[in-house]
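TA notes. Do not distribute before section.
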Amino acid sequence: MYLTTWNKFRHEIYDCFLRAKDALFNTVDALMTETQAKSLPEVTQSLWFERKWSSIYEAFEDGRIDQQALRKVFIRYLPEKEADSSLWIGIDTSGIARPRSLTARDRSALPVPNLPKCEKPVTFGWQFSTVVALPDPASSWTYILDQQRVNTGTTAAQMAFAQLQQLSSSLPKETVVVLDRGYNAIWLWCQCSTLPLQGTLIRLKGNRCFYRAAPAPSGKRGAPRKDGEKLQPEEESSHGSPDGTWQGQDAKGRLVTVTWWKQVHVKQARWLEVTVLQVVRPHATNKERDPRVSWFVWIGDTSVDLASIALGYVRRFGQEHGYRFDKQALLWEKPRLRTPEQFERWSLIVAIAHNQVVLARSVVEPQLRPWENKQRVSTPQQVRRGIGKLLPRLGTPAKPVQLRGKSKGRQRGVQIGKAKRFPVVHKTPKLPPLIPK
């Protein structure tokens, strides 16, 4: 990564802004450099925001961003992976809580983690689906490929597949998609099997039931069997003989056992053959966040090293660290924008700032606080603190401010009514029915 490459990336990002492009690009630079800001108006106090603070709200109200062109720019500048290695991408959803925003349209119920047991872990707001390139080892150095809002008329699984469809033609064939248990849907398995990628690894719930291939016809009267012996993770007696086992150490030198069963299927989609993997970690505490036994389904090329595929699932936790950086440092959930379209533009601005910090990692000297460990790998926030010193050398493609004079204000006698209220959408959307192959 050189300054010329970074500068080219910035100019291509600027070309993706269709309206209010100068104010939007000033917002990106201000967000990257104003590390002490705690709200959206405080971001405008950066030297890189050349306009008055009220212009930032006008930019998100009137601005337009070409998301398809922006997606192509993100993929074009994707950090290079190691030779002879696969690209690992993760997809997950994150909620933006707006429980009291009665004038915000298209809000739905969102789960809230880590609440006391006496509280109901549900709030209301918007949900966003994010596709990121996962680093190795897992850390907050994720690179965002796409970010879209999940509206109330669709599901997270449908949005995930739509994003993969939009990205798959531009991604290398050696790409592995990693999903958590929230995407444990047979409809999504069938759709992912059509993608021109290496495969998809999805974490399973213990009550999922699989079947082996049907036995040969016995010659007796009646229809032949369509399914073979059952394989259910929760029932150890149904496991039978696996197709392969691997035992070794993980990246931290701890004992791990990986077992897999090939060519199994579910009754709802018998034509789709998948591979079921079991990962046993004796050192785990066997709590909800640290299970001793985990189950996965692999949909894709079975000639790959299945043990390394199963062990690679730990990369997915880097996406959680990336979300934390976006929300705590880049103020993703802070602005109180009224419409979902305005917040979608703000989410894209956060993604652009996030990726610029990742791309600047190799050319910016991290700025550490006196109490921060100098022996550890630098964090995105530490690199972000040093961007302000290098940014003057790059300049900005945004045009200088043009003063428009004073506004005439409202005409006398104009009455401003109350903003329209919108109810929370409680209806849960359903996945489309499976179409037999």
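Switch to the second chain here.
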Amino acid sequence: MSVPPAAAPLLGFGRLLRHYGFIIAPEQISGFMQAVTLLGPRSMADIREAALATLAPPPDRRDEFEAHFQSYFYGNTSAVAEGDSDEETRVKDDGGADDERIEAEQRQEGGELSSTIDQLSTRDFQRDDDRLTVFRRQLSSALPARRSFRTVRTHSRGKLDLRRSLREIVSADGDVPSPLLRRRQAVPRKLLILIDVSGSMKLHTSDYLKLAHAAVQGADRAEIFTFGTRLTRITSALRIRDREQALARAAAQVDDWDGGTRMGPTLLAFLSVPRFSAFARGAAVIILSDALERGDHAELETAMRRLSARAFRLSLATPLAGDPRFQPATAALRAILPDLDDLIDGSSVNSLTDFILSLARPAPRAATIWKRVP
């Protein structure tokens, strides 16, 4: 699809920020262009304000964002030289990703495929047997429910509908009929699934995407995101009824298949976009990842704490838990364990579907189940 000449510089600025490691979703770039359209724009200050509001740079990288804005729109390259002091926060594809990935695949050891390299690739998904049909049919009624502010008529166990009752009295010439009652409607909670598509999860990605497609088809309000070195919303692609077409569309949208992982920064980027953060409020949130975070896990701990505060239930499904000897003994897992409601086996579709269909039933918190960890 061609881009209007006037919009090309705005799209190019978003690509530039991605090149320098900023986590920016496609919806943010389109929102940036729409915001500029609404503002006129009358000056470069309008474009700058639109970029800050929609692209949402992290506070600790605000100076670097300003430097790139000055360089891109004003040609001030000296600003970039001053703003590029923090090399560790960047995620780049330096051309050595393929060799590193092949060597890691030959070892096939848990956690060895985890890295911070942004590797761009595509993936094709083949149709297999539809073992998720039952899950799709049962999902809507199995999700935990919440009380809506909307009400429905009821014959018992409700509150008096005074307005309609008075209307009935008037229409009956003062006779007092049976009072009309209403109660608040129960609606299924939102389901939010975040899928790790990094290299360390490549053996499970195909099954996770099939599960996500069934979830979108079966639930009224399900949202699906992928993350590796970037964050991508693929819900619209998975709304296509045909699974093969839906997964092909999703494969085309995601750019960071089988690359590195920056779980903490990408989850913080998710929370920094108000529209995305609203998806997590009061929702059942499931993260499908091995949670093998490289380096400092402070950002991951912060993101999980914020997600836990917004979500109705926060669950981490890791394929590593499929091993009976598994213990959440890594520093990252031990740090986020108090924020998790569930830490469960994510090694198979069967275990995941059974767990999702049981979300309405209460269960001990993850820290209680795994308290034996030293």
